Amino acid sequence: MTRILALTTAILVMPALAAAQSLNFTSKDPNRPIEVTADQGIEWQQSGRMFVARGNAKAKQNDMSVTADELTAHYRDTRTGGTEVYRVDAVGNVTIASSSEQATGSSAVYDFDKEVLVIAGGPKPVTLTTATGKVTAEDSIQYWQKEKVAVAQGNAEAQDETRRIRADKLTAYFTDDNTAASKDSTLKTGEIKLVQGEGNVTLRTAKETVKGTRGEYNRDTGIAKVEGNVTMVQGQNQISGGFAVVDTKAGTSRLFGSAAEAKTASPRADGRVRALIAPTPRSAADSAAPETPAAPKR
User: Fold this and answer.
1) Does the structure show a pLDDT above 60 at 283?
2) In-domain check, residue 268
3) Residue 170 covered by a domain
């Protein structure tokens, strides 16, 4: 029974969507004992093949913990005659935390077979906070371990100290060992290398706000691309077009009529960029009428 209950904390060792750096929901010492507590006790339902911990249920190993109103571990028989947990559910006021990251939601599910972690929101959004940023989503945050892909859905937003990207859906792709070892990459294993946004994309930097229907941000290069009815606002100035390229490292922004135009760096007949540049307000001294020059002496 102790071994089965220990497996309820497998949800702790699964990473999720990070705002900037990698998210390491992993115990520093997975061989240490796991403590499971519950105010209303732990129930073994043999007919349903599950263990249920209720009432401020908490599973903790070193600095890793998962807390919920209820924790349920579903198990099954194996061919060797033993048992194994294939799914863990956390329901009500869920918090998954380590010493440097914390994720909160209304419920969470981890599927061992698919290696998928889903944290759901409602009525409050799912919130993921790290040392370098924050991710929120009204519907859910999912992590697919095998594919090394995380998805935030429902008015999703990821932000760090200088950038913020929002979309109906955000998808993050993580580096693997090969990518991290590449001499061209500055990222470490497990860090986000690319974030893609779909639907009502908004990218905010210290200098501008760019909106479109689709977009992506490459953390390695620092380049963001937004397309589809793009508008770029810098102060009181506004530019509209079909495709924007923002280099967050160089601090430069370019707008084109289309993605094809951006590749060839040459204008096309079907692409047009429009700019609305606000005039700089003049001071009272600047706007005063100039003095009439004195008549020359005869």
Assistant:
1) no
2) yes
3) no
